[in-house]
Request: fold
Amino acid sequence: MVPFPPGGSTDTAARIIADRMRVPLGQTVVVENVGGAGGTIGVGRIARAAPDGYTIDIGQWDTHVGSIIYPLTYDLQKDFQPIGLLSLNPQLMIARRGFPADDLKGLVAWMKANPDKATFVDQNAAARVTGILMQQATGTTVQFIPYRGAGPAMQAMLGGQVDLMVVQAAVTLPQARAGTVKILANLSPARSSVIPNIPTSAESGIPGLYASGWFGLFGPRGLPKEVLARLNDAMVKGLADPKVRERFTDLGLDVAAREHQSPEGLAAFHKAEVDKWWPIIKSANIKVE
Reply:
């Protein structure tokens, strides 16, 4: 289950790993897109699914950490079973082609000279949180424009309907290579090995403006140990496939370190993300009704 519409980075990564997992599992892995409410509708289905291993989701920071900004009907720490971490994904600040700024410093200068004019895509929790943190860090304001996912939002950006978006490299790189969007900054704490030429937000003059990006597989709480082991084994074998790794690299995804690919590794990684981000989100009083 992909909790966003087709066409985004989550959907693309899910289809790559699902296709490879079918070999060790000995059966087809069907990808279903269930978008809406920042991914919480689809993730809610996983929380309520039978713990038999037949229903899992590709989760990420937006759906399994940042989604506390939404009113949830499930517990992010208690209702899911981590299966394994797939990748670390640079989050990029991008602008439409023709936007009058080419980097983060230029963006802030333009926003201060043109208050309330910048339109900012609000397609998930990461976008909303990053947009608010940017406003607080720079004393600027943006107009949030809601979209159901990165795929529809990118189409709007290509059509010149929105100015700015925070999105994973997997969605951005094909368009940036074609010259249809501009990358302003990498919002990761450090430069990515996949796109080392893109400066970080700290290097661009806004220290502390960063966003976490990653993909991991989750199931409902209560998966039998043998089922969990089989799903993890299929995922690990998929990530070891050179063709999968090559496709991930092409999308700007750094394959997760082996120690994080285990259920215990993702559980520890997820807890660290919660411990880091929830105090920031709560102190900034970021909520979406």
In short: The first strand starts at residue 57 and ends at 60. The chain has a mean pLDDT of 92. The first helix runs from residue 9 to 25. The chain has ten helices and nine strands.
